[in-house]
């Protein structure tokens, strides 16, 4: 019984052996086909990593595939200019212990073409024309000054006159000086006059708070028209100065000092406003 069983098992092994070999052959054939198909990729990988060169210690060979595909930047190198010519004489001049070296530079042969365009700028305008163009007209302001009119009965009325005055840093002083000059011929033809005494001059004028402090010379103290003339000259000064919105009253000084009275009874020792006259 034992002998029969052993023969049966050996016959089964002989049948199974060719099937196993066939499977291994198919496996190797598949691996070989995959290797052949992927051969270009494997070759590029080996060349890029240089594994073979590292294992065999072989210097890396120059590859042309990547270099040919890489873009080449063209660089144009212009030839260098002529070098200076150095003339070294064979013998030094007599009496000299050194060799003389003469360096001669080549002349610059670059010339401007005859038909090259040359930019030319227009000549600047004369100085007079330039100043006339750049000079802006002076700025003016309309100011009001006060003269007087005398009617047939002798009554005195303070009347305003408008003037165009050039703008400046001292508008109050400019307006008061115009007032002291008196009315123009045209204004005189309209009946305007001034009762400020002749020869009155302003020594200085300043504004302190809302009060204009004005110093006159001594001529301001003498008015030939009496009390009515003193009041008229004060009105002309006070009303002209208070036309400025920041001035409320006037402090009169004579030769830089305060005087209590003008004439015999007109008080000027303290600031005077329009309501005081």
Explain what this protein looks like in three dimensions:
- The longest helix has 36 residues, at 2-37.
- Mean pLDDT is 77; it is low at 1-5, 61-70, 91-104 and 112-118.
- The radius of gyration is 59 Å and the shape is rod-shaped.
- The chain is built from eight helices and ten strands.
- The strands form four sheets. A four-stranded mixed sheet has the order 5-6-7-8. The chain has a two-stranded antiparallel ribbon with strand order 1-2. Strands 3-4 form a two-stranded antiparallel ribbon.
- It starts with a helix and ends in a 10-residue tail after the last strand.
- It has helices spanning 2-37, 39-49, 51-56, 65-69, 127-134, 171-181, 185-189, 226-241, and strands at residues 85-87, 102-104, 140-150, 156-166, 202-208, 211-216, 249-254, 257-258, 261-262, 266-267.
- The protein has a domain at 140-276.
- With 277 residues, the protein is an alpha+beta fold.
- Helices cover 35% and strands 19% of the residues.
- 12% of the residues are buried.
């Amino acid at each position: 019984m034992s002998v029969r069983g052993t023969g049966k098992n050996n016959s089964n092994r002989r049948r199974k052996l060719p099937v196993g070999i066939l499977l291994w052959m198919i496996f190797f054939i598949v691996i070989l086909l995959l290797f052949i198909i992927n051969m270009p990729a494997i070759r590029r990988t080996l060349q890029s990593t240089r594994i073979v060169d590292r294992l065999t210690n072989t210097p890396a060979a120059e590859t042309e595939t990547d270099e040919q595909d890489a873009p080449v930047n063209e660089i144009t190198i212009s030839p260098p200019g002529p070098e200076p010519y150095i003339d070294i004489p064979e013998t030094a001049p007599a009496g000299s212990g050194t060799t003389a070296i003469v360096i001669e530079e080549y002349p610059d042969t670059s010339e401007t073409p005859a038909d090259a365009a040359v930019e030319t700028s227009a000549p600047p305008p004369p100085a007079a024309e330039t100043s006339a163009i750049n000079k802006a007209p002076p700025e003016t302001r309309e100011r009001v000054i006060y003269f007087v009119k005398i009617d047939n009965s002798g009554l005195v009325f303070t009347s305003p006159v408008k003037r165009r005055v050039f703008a400046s840093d001292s508008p109050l002083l400019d307006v008061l000086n115009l007032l002291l000059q008196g009315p123009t011929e045209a204004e005189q033809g309209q009946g305007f006059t001034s009762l400020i005494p002749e020869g009155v001059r302003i020594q200085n004028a300043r504004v302190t708070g809302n009060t204009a402090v004005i110093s006159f010379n001594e001529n301001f103290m003498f008015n030939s028209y009496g009390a009515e003339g003193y009041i008229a000259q004060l009105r002309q000064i006070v009303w002209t100065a208070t036309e400025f919105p920041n001035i409320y009253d006037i402090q009169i000084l004579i030769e830089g000092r305060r005087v209590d009275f003008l004439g015999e009874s007109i008080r000027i020792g303290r600031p005077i406003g329009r309501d005081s006259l």
